[in-house]
Specification:
By secondary structure, this protein is of the alpha/beta class. The chain has six helices and ten strands; from the N terminus they run ββαβαααββαβαββββ. The strands form three sheets. Strands 1-7-10-9 form a four-stranded mixed sheet, with no helix packed on it. Strands 5-4-3-6 form a four-stranded parallel sheet. A two-stranded antiparallel sheet has the order 2-8.
C-alpha cells in the first residue's frame, strides 16, 4: 500500500483547506529528481493496481491517462504510463457496469479472500492506491505486505488515519527510510506477524 501522509500520520486532513502535500498530483511537481526516480522505480515492478471504487470515481484513471498522454516520452512520468498499462482491479461492494479503461475490472466479494487469491495467482507486484476508507479496510483485513508511506513535512493536527480500523493496532518493522531534498521522507514498513 502506498500513501502520502502528514508528519503527524494523517492521510486526510480534518480541514480540507489545509494544503499539506508537497505534491497534490497537479501539474506542478515539486518533488526532487531523486524522489521522482525512486517513485517511478517502484511502479516499474508493478503489473496490477488495486483501487477503491471511490478513487476511480474521483478521476484517478482519467487523470493519469491524460498525464501519460501529455508526457509520452518524459521519464518522470513513466509511472503514469504504467497506470494505463497495468491491470487495474477496482474493489466495490456492488458492480456498477463496465469500465471504459482497458485492462480494468471489478473485484467483489470478501476483501481478504479476494486479495489472497490475487496474491496466489500469476503476476508481479501489486500496489494498492485509494483513500482512507480503502486503506483502512486493507490494513484491518491484514492483507498488506508492505506499507510505503510518503511522509510530507507538514502536520495537520487532526484527520483520518489509514490504521483507524485495525483492532488492537498494528506493529510494523521499518525496512527502509529515505529522506529527500524536497522534504519528503519515505518509510517502508512490513507488518510484524
Amino acid at each position: 500500500m502506498q500513501m502520502q501522509t502528514s508528519a503527524d500520520g494523517y492521510v486526510e486532513a480534518a480541514d480540507p483547506a489545509v494544503q499539506w502535500q508537497v505534491w497534490d498530483w497537479g501539474q506542478n511537481w515539486p518533488w526532487d529528481d531523486e524522489l521522482k526516480r525512486d517513485f517511478n522505480e517502484t511502479f516499474r515492478a508493478v503489473d496490477r493496481i488495486l483501487l477503491s471504487r471511490k478513487m476511480v470515481e474521483e478521476g484517478y484513471l482519467d487523470h493519469w491517462g491524460r498525464t501519460a498522454e501529455s508526457h509520452p516520452d518524459e521519464p518522470d512520468f513513466a509511472f503514469a504510463r504504467k497506470v494505463g498499462d497495468a491491470e487495474k482491479i477496482v474493489f466495490s461492494t456492488a458492480e456498477s457496469g463496465h469500465f471504459r479503461w482497458p485492462r480494468t475490472r471489478w473485484a467483489g466479494g470478501e476483501l481478504a479472500a479476494t486479495i489472497t487469491r490475487l496474491k496466489a495467482g500469476p503476476g508481479a507486484d501489486m500496489i494498492a492506491v485509494g483513500g482512507t476508507g480503502f486503506a483502512a479496510a486493507l490494513a484491518a483485513a491484514g492483507v498488506v505486505d508492505e506499507y510505503q508511506l510518503y511522509i510530507n513535512p507538514t502536520a495537520v493536527g487532526r484527520g483520518e488515519s489509514p490504521f483507524r480500523s485495525v483492532p488492537g493496532g498494528l506493529r510494523l518493522t521499518l525496512d527502509r527510510s529515505r529522506s529527500y531534498a524536497c522534504g519528503i521522507v519515505v518509510n517502508t514498513y512490513t507488518p510484524v506477524n
